[in-house]
Structures are given as C-alpha cells and as structure tokens.
Specification:
10% strand, 23 helices
C-alpha cells in the first residue's frame, strides 16, 4: 500500500475541502464574522443576494438548524468552524466510499472511467442507459431529460449534469449505508465540491494519485482517516496545552498496525473460542495465536478451577460451549473500524466451521457480534462503512436491506432538552440526558445510570405514532437510548487501542471526571479505559489492548497495576521496540487478558526491544511463535508479579 500517496492526498484534500466549504458557506451568508439572515421573497428564499428554489430552501433551512444546534454549545465563530469541518470530512468520507465501492465492483464507475483511454466517469457517459435501466432510484429518462434541459442553460452543462448524477448516486446509497450517506443531512448537497470534471479536481486527484490496487483493501479507509486529521493532530500536540473536546479525536487517534490487530483479536476472541471448542480448527487461521503450552481445565466446559492455593477462584459460568451468536465483541474506541474488520474475518470462519450458510453469516455477524463506539462522528461513519464492505464482499445483496449496525458515536446531550411531549416521562429521561452531557469529552468512559430500555422505547413509539409537533425529537432520543444501551451491556470480548493522553493535557472536565471515577488510573486516558473495560466484561471474558508500556513499571501506575492483576489474568504480552509504531514513535506494548483470577496460568511474553524498526516487529513475533527457544519469548504466571517491587510487570 502506497501510504505516502495516501498521506499526500488526504492532507491536501482536507485543506481543499475546508476552503471550498468555507467559500460556499460565505455565499449563503455564513462566516465566522457574521451570519446574514434570509428573507422570503416571490419565487423562493433570498439568502445573501441569491434566490433559492424550493429544494435549495429546504436544504438551507436544515443547514441553519444544524448551525443553531452547534451555537447552543459554542460561540457563533466556533459553531461555524465546526460546521465547516463536519461538511468537509463528510464529503471526504463519501468520495472515499464511492471510490472503494467502484473499484471493488459494488457500484458502477461513478468517479472514474472503465476505459483507460477516456477520462469522464462512466456515470456521465452512460447516463442514458443508467436512466433507462433504472439503475439509480428516482432517475428515469424523463428526469434525465429535465436535468439536461437545465444543464443546457448552464455555462458548463457536463459539470451541471454530473453533479446531479453524483448526488443521485449518493441518495441511492443512503438506505444501504446511512452512516456515510445520511439521508437526513440534505444540506450536504449544497456543498458538493465544485469543478469535479476539471483535471485537478478532487475527484480526478483521488482517482489518479492513489493506486487502484490500494483500494482493494479496506485498510485504506483507516489510513485515509489517520492522515486526514494528521495536521490537526500535530497542531494540538504541538500546542502542549489542555485539549478541548473537539480536538480529543485528533490528539488521540492512532491507526493500529494490522499485525497487532491480528494478535489482539486472535488471542482474545480466538482464544475464547478455542477454549470453548478445543476441537476447532480455527488456530489454522491465526498466525499470531500464542498456544498455551500448559492448558488448564476450562471453566467454560465445566472443568476444575484454579489450584487450591489461589484463594480467588473464578466464578463458574454455565457448563456449556459458547455459540457463535453469543460471541459479542466490542471496540469502545473503534476509530475507523480496523479491529472490527478483522474480528469480522475471524467470526466468519467460526460461523462457517459451525455449518452456517456463507450468505447468511454477514448479517448474523453485524446483528449479533460486532459493537463499536467512538467519540468521533467521522470515525463512526468510516467504521460502519468498513464492516458493511466486509459483509458486502460475502453477500452481494446485503446493501439492499442491511441489518442495523451496532456502531455509533457517543454523542453529547449538552444542548439537548427533553421536549414537553405528553408521551415522554421526564423522570425516565433526565438521568440519561444528565449522564451524557459531557460525552464529547468522556465518550465510552461513561457508565450510564440504570434505565428501562423497553419503557423508553415504548414512549418513543407513542411519540412517533402521535401527531405531536415534537415527533422530530424521536430519532435523537433513540440514538441516546442506543448509546446508553451499548455502554450498559457486557460483552464476551473487548479489543481496543484506547486513546492515550496524559493528565497534563486533560481539560478540566476530564480531570474532574478522572479524579472522581478513576482515581487509580487518572494518570492517562488509556489506564482509565482499562478500568472501564472491566465493567464491559463478563466472567471468563477475553480482552486485547494496545497502549504505552509505561504502565508496566512507572510508580504512578502502581495502584492501577495491582488492580489489573487482581481482576485479570495476563494471558500474553508483547513489548515492542520504541520505534515500532509506524508512522509515530510511541513506546507501546500489546497484551491480552482473561477476566478470571486463575493466576497460576502461564502467560506468554515476547520482548522485541532488541529488534529496531517497525518492519522487524511482526516477523520476530512469528519467529518466536515457531521457535520457543529463540531467546526473547518467556513464560510467567500473573501471581508472580506480586513478588516484584512495586508490582512491576516483569517477566
């Protein structure tokens, strides 16, 4: 994968899109200096000297509503800046999604030409046949001829027509991929980038600068996301100050190398399945799986617990094997979905070996197994897209009626008030609204108060069935219930690369929250996430994490370490070399835990500090797995850590 090309394009595209959106917003009288009010006139709405037709008026009013919502939680200038960022990254995500789908044959060539000798996209050249065949919902020959009539009065008729066709394609994908092509955000159409058919347009550069073969791997989405926000990340980190809520995603986002994702998922989800199904051949699909050389009786199968000298024996779970649909997997800081994508692959193999029909498996995985949360809306969009593309690769019809995904952004209720609808009981809703008021800072660290899902859903059903003027609040309140439900559930597997942010960078809201709720882990966000993961998990569940290795030995993490080894058994740990995390330089370790106190179990530890450079890390892990006498793989019991000074994680 040509990461240099991806990085160069993503950085340029962010600058380009933000400038385009900013200029377009100014045409509607929206700037960081002032906002010009519209006027109703004959023939439409007058905005900053231009008259909008009925469709544009509706889109403009939605735009102003979104701006008004943002103004409730920030200054007018900051609200405009946030709106510009939102629109820019939404179009970036949409263009990336269209490119991925056309290259993989999931849609026609809407951004490029199938003929290497031609430049104009097939969507424009084949518009008549597309309309005649009804390939795009809402586009028939009459509509196309009407558009052509409008186009002929435009200075650039091809550009005018192509824009209409591209928006029609986005609308056609809204039902199948709502996270990226949200049908509720009609105002986005006002900001489709201009001059799309020009040689140096964003579409042409997207097609030309990133090699087509790179689009055949869904991992390209994660790299685009990382590089898109890289400049802002450098600005935030360079400021060396408290990080505002809006900048937490940029400050903490770090793309997880694929081999580390494989290691974490295989040694958590994979290990859990193999412990429940010793006869499984799943290990043949897991190159980074660390086989337990001295397997102990498995509580999942009703075997004996730990040795008598271990006073904290694990709670016995029901004596049966897990079924594929029970293997719930969550990434509470899912980013662009890289971990969820690989978990999908492993789950697919699990279902297949259990005899499920391959065409049925994708929907089962999306419905029952995969859960993702993130503080960043744009990340949740891409994660949703990524897992849908994995599903589409196995079932060509899944986008026609896709299952509802268990992936969402954790949204703030800071500006949200409960409507005065008789169908809603304030006593049932206000605790949730209060709990999530700072969600833009806290994300998945929030533990919701107790609530009755069925009661709240029933109230929303009644509201939607009524003629109340407050019906429009129902979707927002449903999202609130959904994120609270995900954060209240427990899961069999948690895998995460949690955010890293030291206490000196935590803003006042995060600091106060950390002191109150995570006193032993307040030194860094990553430690708080590990404590939060404990509440996500059931007994004998499996966990995989990647985070800075300072938690293993610094005195400031001693209480945190003690809490971890009391609550979990370390099943494996890989300590990476300092410069092993491409493209960043971060001293990290990746490890897996079991939520049990079977501390006689031997964990496997691999030390890679003698092997410089990111390119050497994965091969050396494979070497250690195949050669137990290589000299840098070790075995250690979790209970032995109690004997080390300050309970350092030593092996």
């Amino acid at each position: 994968m040509n990461r240099t090309a991806i990085k160069n394009f993503a950085i340029w595209a962010r600058r380009y899109l933000r400038e385009q959106v900013k200029a377009r917003a100014a045409q509607y009288g929206i700037t960081d200096k002032s906002i010009i009010q519209s006027q109703t006139v004959t023939g439409g709405l007058l905005v900053a000297g231009q008259t909008l037709n009925a469709t544009e008026t509706n889109q403009y009013e939605q735009l102003r509503n979104r701006l008004q919502d943002l103004t409730l939680i920030s200054s007018p200038a900051q609200a405009v800046a946030t709106l510009i960022d939102e629109i820019a990254y939404t179009w970036f995500n949409r263009l990336a999604a269209l490119r991925f789908m056309e290259v993989n044959g999931y849609i026609g060539r809407v951004l490029s030409s199938s003929d290497p000798n031609l430049v104009d996209p097939d969507l424009l050249r084949d518009a008549s046949s597309i309309a005649e065949m009804g390939d795009l919902p809402g586009l028939d020959l009459d509509t196309l001829n009407e558009w052509r009539g409008f186009a002929n009065r435009d200075p650039n008729p091809d550009e005018f027509l192509y824009r209409r066709l591209l928006l029609a394609q986005c609308k056609a994908l809204a039902e199948g991929i709502p996270a990226v092509f949200d049908p509720r955000q009609n105002y986005q159409a006002l900001f489709l980038p201009g001059n799309l058919l020009n040689q140096d347009s964003i579409v042409r550069r997207l097609v030309k600068e990133i090699p087509e073969e790179d689009w055949q791997d869904i991992e390209v989405v994660g790299w685009l996301y990382q590089f898109y926000i890289s400049e802002r990340k450098d600005e935030v980190i360079g400021a060396k100050s408290k990080v505002a809520a809006a900048d937490i995603p940029a400050a903490t986002q770090l793309f997880t190398p694929h081999w580390i994702v494989q290691y974490m998922v295989e040694n958590s989800l994979g290990r859990l399945w193999l412990e429940s199904h010793p006869e499984s051949r799943l290990r043949e699909c897991m190159p980074y799986y660390l086989e337990n050389q001295e397997p102990l009786p498995n509580p999942l199968l009703g075997g004996e617990g730990t040795r008598e000298e271990n006073s904290c024996s694990p709670q016995r779970v029901e004596e049966r094997s897990l079924t594929p649909q029970e293997l719930t997997v969550i990434d509470p800081a899912c980013g662009s979905g890289h971990i969820l994508v690989y978990a999908f692959d492993l789950l697919f193999e699990i279902y297949k070996e259990q005899g499920y029909l391959e065409r049925d498996i994708p929907a089962l995985i999306l419905t029952h197994n995969l859960y993702g949360l993130d503080i960043d809306e744009r990340a949740a969009q891409l994660a949703s897209f990524a897992v849908l593309m994995k599903a589409r690769a196995h079932n060509s019809r899944i986008l026609r009626k896709p299952p509802t995904l268990n992936i969402t952004a954790v949204r703030s209720t800071h500006s949200q008030t409960l409507p005065l609808a008789t169908e809603l009981n304030p006593e049932d809703w206000e605790p949730l609204i209060e709990a999530f008021k700072d969600a833009d800072n806290l994300g998945s660290l929030i533990t919701p108060p107790p609530f009755d899902v069925e009661k709240l859903q029933g109230q929303l059903n009644n509201l939607e069935a009524s003629s109340s003027l407050f019906r429009e609040y129902a979707p927002i309140l449903r999202e609130l219930v959904l994120q609270a439900e995900f954060l209240s559930k427990t899961y069999w597997v948690v895998v995460a690369n949690p955010p890293y942010m030291g206490s000196k960078h935590l803003n006042t809201i995060l600091q106060a929250f950390a002191v109150k709720n995570y006193p032993d882990a307040k030194s860094d966000l990553f430690a708080m996430f590990i404590e939060r993961i404990d509440k996500f998990t059931v007994q004998n569940s499996a966990i995989g994490c990647l985070m800075p290795f300072v938690w293993m030995f610094l005195p400031s993490y001693e209480k945190f370490r003690l809490k971890v080894i009391k609550q979990f058994t370390i099943t494996s740990l890989i300590q990476l070399e300092y410069n092993a995390f491409e493209p960043a330089c971060v001293p990290v370790c990746t490890f897996t835990l079991k939520k049990s106190t079977n501390q006689d179990e031997l964990g496997t530890y691999i030390k890679l500090s003698d092997f410089k450079g990111h390119q050497n890390q994965a091969p050396k892990v494979i070497e250690a797995i195949s050669n137990k006498n290589c000299g840098y793989i070790f075995r250690c019991k979790t209970k032995d850590i109690y004997n080390f000074p300050n309970n350092v994680i030593a092996y």
